[in-house]
């Protein structure tokens, strides 16, 4: 597999230094991508560069994931308007371990293959580097003029953001450049990859290698991912879409991909899956012929949910979707864990009810008019029940005065009431 051609048809190349493709065709090559360790989970904004490493390894080359423990203590000015919070070593180490666990789902770290992936942390080689040694050995190799010409620096210095640029941040590209030099010398790393906003930092590294060792080094960047409507990719109303289920449940993760637009689905399935060109072309054709069936979104959501979480989590997410949008059974509803239940019914009206009263039994009509304001009157409730329009935990209510008790509780806490086809209410026993 030709790595560059693979990225090209997937729409994943923005800039590439001359000679990169020839180097990769010549021999097994080592490349790295830097990952910011400011959280103990990756989010989907990281996935583009992770997928680049995945394709790189599939093409027979050796990927390195560099956790930026040292650079994370500084803060990259690229695409940022403000300096960011700095982290202590204990937090960085914790974040590194969590990130490696997530990366293991995409990359092979453990085999004895010559192109097994490697995880490194630049804090390990920067922590004992004194300031005087750094400015003497590295600082003298790159001129201030060269550093000032970078867009990320120019934008901040021009006052567009009004925040200015600290010396700490100004030195960032030198520290990142030294990472490339260090990996080049110690692990024969000849290529650095990243988002297009990293081009300036990456080329500082290639320049440093050229000046210090006279060796060859290359750069390749992918476009920053956007949404067709101009919105920011990976952001929802509740914030980032995380890979860790503690922050974004598998159900919500699955729903994010399932709900992307047709235009975005056609782009994302090339970037975020390992499906072949033939498979993707077939799916695109199916989408054009029957867009209402959403084959692209369904396959995209499946591939990426299984890759990040598991087949089991994917199946549970599909089943949970059926509960909200399909004709699911009470049995399926009862199988949902609490987190998934709350994810599925996030945003529906909630009412607190008395656990003590429920244990003694409450008539449905009293429960839904007096304890929870689901119906405005008992007459309205009786009429809706007679029309078959009320369900408790996905079971149609046969009589308005049916007694509901604590046996109905889901996860020993919730009762789901459905009024009509689309109106849900969550009762919480307290």
Summarize the structure.
The protein has 430 residues and is an alpha/beta fold.
- Per the principal axes of the C-alpha atoms, what is the gross shape? elongated
| End-to-end CA span | 59 Å
Compute the CA-based radius of gyration.
Answer: 27 Å
What is the strand arrangement across the widest sheet?
Answer: 1-6-5-2-3-4
- Poorly predicted runs are 79-83
Give the helix level as a range of percent.
40-55%
Q: What structural class do helix, strand and pairing data support?
A: alpha/beta
Output the number of helix runs: 21
Q: How much strand?
A: 5-15%
Average pLDDT for all residues: 90
Description:
The protein is of the alpha/beta class. Helix content is 45%, strand content 14%. The chain has helices at 3-9, 20-26, 47-58, 89-103, 123-126, 131-137, 144-148, 151-157, 167-170, 172-187, 199-212, 250-258, 262-271, 277-289, 295-308, 311-325, 330-335, 338-344, 355-360, 364-371, 378-386; strands at 15-16, 30-35, 62-67, 118-121, 189-195, 218-222, 235-236, 239-240, 350-353, 362-363, 390-392, 395-396, 403-404, 414-419, 423-429. The strands form four sheets. A six-stranded mixed β-sheet has the order 1-6-5-2-3-4, with helices on both faces. Strands 9-15-14-11-12 form a five-stranded mixed β-sheet. Helix 12 packs antiparallel against helix 15, helix 12 crosses helix 16 (311-325) and helix 13 (262-271) packs parallel to helix 15. The protein is elongated. The N and C termini lie far apart (59 Å). Mean pLDDT is 90; it is low at 79-83. Homodimer. This is Tyrosine--tRNA ligase. Pfam families: SYY_C-terminal, tRNA-synt_1b.
């Amino acid at each position: 597999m030709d790595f560059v051609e693979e990225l090209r048809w997937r729409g994943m190349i923005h800039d590439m230094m001359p000679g990169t493709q020839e180097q990769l065709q010549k021999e097994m090559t080592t490349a790295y991508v830097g990952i910011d360790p400011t959280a103990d989970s990756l989010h989907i904004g990281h996935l583009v560069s992770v997928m680049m490493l995945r394709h790189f390894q599939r093409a027979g080359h050796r990927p390195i994931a560099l956790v930026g423990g040292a650079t994370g203590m500084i803060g990259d000015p690229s695409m940022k308007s403000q300096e960011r919070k700095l982290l202590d070593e204990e937090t960085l180490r914790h974040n590194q371990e969590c990130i490696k666990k997530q990366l293991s789902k995409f990359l092979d770290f453990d085999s004895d293959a010559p192109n097994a992936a490697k995880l490194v942390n630049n804090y390990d080689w920067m922590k004992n580097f004194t300031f005087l040694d750094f400015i003497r050995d590295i600082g003298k190799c790159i001129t201030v003029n060269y550093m000032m010409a970078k867009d990320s620096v120019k934008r901040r210095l021009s006052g567009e953001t009004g925040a200015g640029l600290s010396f700490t941040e100004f030195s960032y590209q030198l520290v990142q450049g030294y990472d490339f030099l260090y990996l080049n010398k110690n692990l024969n790393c000849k290529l650095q990859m990243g988002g297009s906003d990293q081009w300036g930092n990456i080329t500082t590294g290639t320049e440093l290698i050229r000046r210090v060792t006279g060796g060859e080094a290359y750069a390749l960047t992918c476009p920053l991912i956007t949404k067709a409507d101009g919105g920011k990719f990976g952001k929802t109303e509740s914030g980032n879409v995380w890979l860790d289920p503690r922050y974004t449940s598998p159900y919500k993760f699955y729903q994010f991909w399932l709900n992307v637009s047709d235009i975005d689905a056609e782009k994302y399935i090339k970037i975020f899956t390992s499906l072949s060109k033939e498979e993707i072309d077939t799916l695109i054709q199916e989408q054009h012929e029957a867009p209402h069936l959403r084959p692209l979104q369904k396959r995209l959501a499946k591939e990426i949910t299984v890759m990040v979480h598991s087949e089991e989590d994917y199946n549970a997410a599909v089943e949970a979707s059926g509960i909200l949008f399909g004709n699911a059974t009470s049995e399926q509803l009862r199988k949902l864990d609490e987190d998934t239940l709350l994810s599925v019914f996030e945003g529906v009206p909630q009412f607190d009810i008395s656990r003590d009263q429920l244990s003694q039994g409450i008539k449905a009509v009293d429960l839904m008019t007096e304890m929870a304001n689901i119906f405005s009157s008992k007459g309205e409730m009786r009429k809706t029940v007679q029309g078959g329009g009320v369900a408790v935990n996905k079971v149609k209510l046969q009589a308005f005065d049916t007694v509901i008790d604590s046996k109905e509780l889901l996860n020993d806490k919730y009762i789901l009431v459905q009024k009509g086809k689309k109106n849900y209410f969550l009762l919480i026993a307290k």
